[in-house]
Amino acid sequence: MAPSVCLQEMIRVIRSARTQGEERGVIQRECAAIRAQFRQADSGGRSHNLAKLLYVHMLGYPAHFGQMECVRMIASPRYSEKRIGYLGAMMLLDEKQDASLLITNSIKNDLSHSSQYIQSLALCTLACMGSAEMCRDLAPEIERLLKASNSYIKKKAALCAVHIVRKIPELGELFTPSAHSLLSDKNHGVLHGAVVLITELCERNPGNLDEFRKAVPELVQIMKGLVTSGYSPEHNVAGISDPFLQVRVLRLLRILGRNNDEASDAMNDLLAQVATNTDSSKTAGSAVLYETVLTIMDIKSESGLRVLAVNILGRFLLNNDRNIRYISMTSLQKIVQTDHTAVQRHRGTIVDCLKDQDASVKRRALELSLALVSAANIRSMMKELLRFLSTCPPELRSHATSGIFNAAERYAPSQRWHIDTILHVLITAGGDVRDETVPNLIQLISVASELHCYTVHKLYRALISDISQQSLVQVACWCIGEYGDLLLKGDCDEIEPMQVTEDDVLDVLETILQSHMSSPTSRGFALTAIMKLSTRITNNIDRIRSVVSIYGSCIDVELQQRAVEYNALFKKYDHMRYLIMSSHTIMGFNSVTCLCVFSAPNVTVYEKGGVNLKLQCDNQTETAITVTFTASNSTQSDITSFTLQAAVPKSVQLQMKAPSGDVIPAQGRGTVTQTILLNNPNKASLKMRVRLSYTSQGTLCQDMVQIDSFPSPAWN
Amino acid sequence: MIKAILIFNNHGKPRLIRFYQYFAEDMQQQIIRETFHLVSKRDDNVCNFLEGGSLIGGSDYKLIYRHYATLYFVFCVDSSESELGILDLIQVSVIIVNVCFHVQVFVETLDKCFENVCELDLIFHMDKVHYILQEVVMGGMVLETNMNEIVAQVELQNRMEKSEGGLSAAPARAVSAVKNMNLPEIPRNINIGDINIKVPSLSPF
């Protein structure tokens, strides 16, 4: 292939490659040729080569070696070379690269070039990738172009100014006077640019609002001109005169009229006019109408106008066009906080949209529905939301479950209803419930004491038909462990009776332990539940003992640890087993059950994410105790910045010794220990809350553990 | 602000990629793949708005797209843009691109391969399409929406380039057609996939 083949020829060759490998080969050869060409001082087809490079860059191949060539081309006097050079700079460079500094001078020169097309190349590039230094350097030049040039350049200079203001907000002052005067230009492109610039200036610096509020009459005039003008083929889109400009002006009016009576008054009539006269049968008109509605709702408009606006949104909610339904819901979302009652009137239609085929419409409907839930409508809304959950697209499910739980918690009319709702969600969508909500759900269930029997029965029945949904499994295991006696009794007021034997229960828990579908956390819950049942059943203690001892050599380190400790409970501390496994077991703040401390020499009080924290108590006197925490790490990478903080009741004095370090080596190769001296002169009941903070695999983790009983009998 | 303009075909092959915010190359390709994945799952009768892309910018960003036979035109925007406005803008841009390559349009209007020709324009003249788009969107902001204005400016710039000495290797057919180009003779009806538009006034949408 000849080195200076044109772009089209290269593309033809690439497209005729039959495999990915062949394509790669072709491109590598081409790039090598291009690279060689770049190195030559002078070659005829320079712009071809850069164009080819940009093409292969689009396909995903590396093109960084073309950066300097862009710089050279930009400096060329030829328009064709400048053009591709600037395009290359915008595609391949960004302000972080050194090469971009080198083009500052070219841009500066080209900004004052005699040809407007070369000026426009420089403006475009500056607006795309101008660094803060470039912007500072060239801002006065841009300001000059705003005033002294033709419309083609003015509109580009205006957008360039927007970029400059974004990079260096203080430079906004420089553009404020010119921005205002641009509003009297007749060219729509210039007007558009001016409105965007003024919008940016107002949003960056609220101090500018007063200045630009003086422009409200002018903006109103511009809008009137657009709305009442006759048919103008120049700007006409589906019967609307320059809808793009109208939308921009309406947005600016919104910003200026917000929280300001005078400005709002000045635009009131105009908004009423646009709202009533705009033909919204096509997209263009709808865009204008929506912008108008949002502006009306956001400024201090008359109540009659507000009613009109919400009605327009309501009408659009019923439109056949899905785009319009989607947009109307987006708009309603924006006003649901401030105009809640008005939006509530459309609740029925919104809830219907939950059944729409379109996932985007469903998403909007879900957001709005959750925002519209109130104490008055909680029962009917929850029916709809639960129905939605069964047909919900996968990407929305975890958001939906979280939203449902929040709504249920805020407005539950009764405990029974609340528990039923939780159960329903766990059973239909337990796989999508976020892990962090499990402890909260357990908390809610444990508080509803009259419903324990009902809850454990329902969860058990759900569990025997499906153990794949992890959140359901975890909550169910916890309940079975905690309320196993109620389950085994067999009868329950609210449900059909069902005979459940100890073997049945242990069967299902063991199935969970062994299933490849169960997450490590779920396994932990299942093992703990089995252990707790040892105090609630009579006939199968041996079975439990054997399960626990089997898992003492389990590959999963956390499970093994847990099993070993439970084993110890059976062997050395059988007398403590009832105490610990009774109904007062404390939950940590994460999904791992936290054990009470008991008088084994070294007890695990926390296990999650590969971090294991053990507690050892010694040196006990009547009032003093030394507590040592040992932290280990079973993950593949070191844990860093590990810190422990502890809090105790007021009457207890606490002295933290220096920790042995803050890095816990990976794979159990080392530990960090932290000793705490406690002095309990009043012999108060000792509790401790420990907060852990560490970085694991780049993520900051924080967690809390509550330790509710310490071994000294004098204090319990 | 418009964060990116992505044009790719029904198989996800990129035809034009323009990012208005810096992303490293591999990130760009990942965004293209993710966007194609999201957009290609959509039926033809659902709305043109998509949320939920995670790579390009989180919750404030939406994908607004149009599907024309073999091509997807996707604009990734934040909440400062009017969604319906952008939808119209995509339509306007497509028409402008077609008009600027109007020779092929004119010649092939009755030809069944019409839609493929549209894609071929993009494939073989990626740089030209960039220059055209630069007259519509600049620095991530909408610059100009007047179709006649844009087409005229593009034409003048192309003439300037040609007058320097024919470096831009356009196919011969296009070169001679450009010489013959005369705006009033642009056909009144253009079919693009399933939409039917008149030039230069854009009705019905």
UniProtKB/TrEMBL annotation, chain A:
GO biological process: intracellular protein transport; vesicle-mediated transport
SMART domains: Alpha_adaptinC2 (SM00809)
Domain GAE residues, every copy: 598-711
InterPro entries: Adaptor_Complx_Large_Subunit, AP1_complex_gsu, ARM-like, ARM-type_fold, Clathrin/coatomer_adapt-like_N, Clathrin_a/b/g-adaptin_app_Ig, Clathrin_app_Ig-like_sf, GAE_dom
Cellular component GO terms, alphabetical: AP-1 adaptor complex
Membrane topology: Peripheral membrane protein
Pfam families, per database record: Adaptin_N, Alpha_adaptinC2
Keywords attached to this entry: Cytoplasmic vesicle, Golgi apparatus, Membrane, Protein transport, Transport
The keyword Transport is assigned to this record: yes
Places the protein is found: Cytoplasmic vesicle membrane; Endomembrane system; Golgi apparatus
SUPFAM superfamilies, A to Z: ARM repeat (SSF48371), Clathrin adaptor appendage domain (SSF49348)
Annotated PANTHER family: ADAPTIN, ALPHA/GAMMA/EPSILON
Annotated family: Belongs to the adaptor complexes large subunit family.
Protein name: AP-1 complex subunit gamma
Species per Swiss-Prot/TrEMBL record: Pygocentrus nattereri
Lineage, highest ranks first: Eukaryota, Metazoa, Chordata, Craniata, Vertebrata
Gene assigned in the entry: AP1G2
Automatic annotation (TrEMBL), chain B:
Annotated localization: Cytoplasmic vesicle membrane; Golgi apparatus
Domain AP complex mu/sigma subunit: 1-102
CDD domains named in the record: AP3_sigma
PROSITE patterns the UniProt entry points to: CLAT_ADAPTOR_S
Coiled coil start-end: none
Organism: Pygocentrus nattereri (Red-bellied piranha)
GO annotation (BP), single: Golgi to vacuole transport
Keyword line: Cytoplasmic vesicle, Golgi apparatus, Membrane, Protein transport, Transport
Membrane disposition: Peripheral membrane protein
Function: Part of the AP-3 complex, an adaptor-related complex which is not clathrin-associated. The complex is associated with the Golgi region as well as more peripheral structures. It facilitates the budding of vesicles from the Golgi membrane and may be directly involved in trafficking to lysosomes. In concert with the BLOC-1 complex, AP-3 is required to target cargos into vesicles assembled at cell bodies for delivery into neurites and nerve terminals.
Keyword Transit peptide: no
Keyword Protein transport among record annotations: yes
GO cellular component: AP-3 adaptor complex; cytoplasmic vesicle membrane; Golgi apparatus
A Pfam family the protein falls into: Clat_adaptor_s
Protein name in the entry: AP complex mu/sigma subunit domain-containing protein
Family according to the record: Belongs to the adaptor complexes small subunit family.
InterPro entries given in the database record: AP_complex_ssu (IPR016635), AP_mu_sigma_su (IPR022775), APS3 (IPR027155), Clathrin_sm-chain_CS (IPR000804), Longin-like_dom_sf (IPR011012)
